[in-house]
Amino acid sequence: MSDLHLIIHLFSEKPVFSEETLETIHLLLKEHLPTWSRELKVTPDEYDEEEGAFVGENSLFEIVQREIIQKTAPAYQGSGDATLLGNDEGIVFFLESNTSTFLPMSNTIYIEIYNVNKIEELSTFDWTRKFVKSLTSAIPIRYGNAHLSEDFERKNMVRDNGEVYAIGARIDNAIPGIYWLNYFGKPYKSFFDKKCINSVPVFEVYEDSQGLLIVLDETPLNWQNSDYKQKEEEIISSLGKDYFFLRSAPERVTIAPTFR
């Protein structure tokens, strides 16, 4: 089996570097990653160990302001990129913030998990479901997903004459695809709800006032199985093909929410 590379990608409705959002992220880290976050460090670059600072007893907002905003983007208060590191190098958080929320992809929480089979006594996949559920209940998220890198490669990556790039990844055009875990926030409320997929035998469906969470299978490791692929097709058909990017027809007209 290849190395485990799980990605969680969430698009925030609010600027990620706002005090409210950063303090909520900090609380969630303490709750769901207490061991990892004991050595929480903020840095502009995960590979430069000399940069950044440990959070310690400070607030995450305070350290991001000092280490990211004031040092790297003083002219763009509230905008920039930050990396959060903990005491396990297999888990890394990448935060991207923009004071303007007009562009739906300008504020993101991107988490990479490399070769970590258990997180805080839970399987990595159980932890991911629990964490995403908590985060999307606490922070307004427009859209999000969790997938293995190989699955995203199959659906959205192009390798052509030495060039490597993603296709169909812009949520202002269409939903990029159906992955192991899928979250649809308030912008999608008028499009569909859990009743649309009642007949699809997915692993978990959770809906609250903030949005709809769909988990296809107990594990994303089954992404190559025929049953798994059948579930993907059934969900897309049940929710509506017009909302989704399809690699087989990349130029077709699709429907996306009006993000505000």
In round numbers, the mean pLDDT is 93
Helix content: 10-25%
What letter string, H or E per element, gives the SSE order?
Answer: EHEEHEEEEEHEHEEEEEH
Strand content bin: 25-35%
Low-confidence spans? none
Q: Note the total helix count.
A: 5
Trace the largest sheet across and list its strands. Answer: 3-2-4-5-6-1-9-12-14-13
For the secondary structure, the number of strands is 14
> What shape does the CA trace take?
globular
Through-space gap between termini: 43 Å
How would a textbook summarize the main sheet? 10 strands, antiparallel
Rounded to the nearest angstrom, the radius of gyration is 18 Å
Q: Decide which structural class fits the backbone.
A: alpha+beta
Describe the structure.
The protein is α+β, with helices and mostly antiparallel strands. The protein is built from 5 helices and 14 strands. The termini are far apart. The mean pLDDT is 93.
Summary tags:
two-stranded antiparallel sheet; about 260 residues
SSE topology:
Elements: E1 5-12, H1 19-32, E2 41-43, E3 53-54, H2 60-72, E4 80-85, E5 91-97, E6 108-114, E7 118-119, E8 122-123, H3 124-138, E9 141-148, H4 149-156, E10 157-160, E11 163-166, E12 181-184, E13 204-207, E14 212-215, H5 226-239
Antiparallel strand pairs: 1-6, 1-9, 2-3, 2-4, 4-5, 5-6, 7-8, 9-12, 10-11, 12-14, 13-14
Helix pairs in contact: 1-3
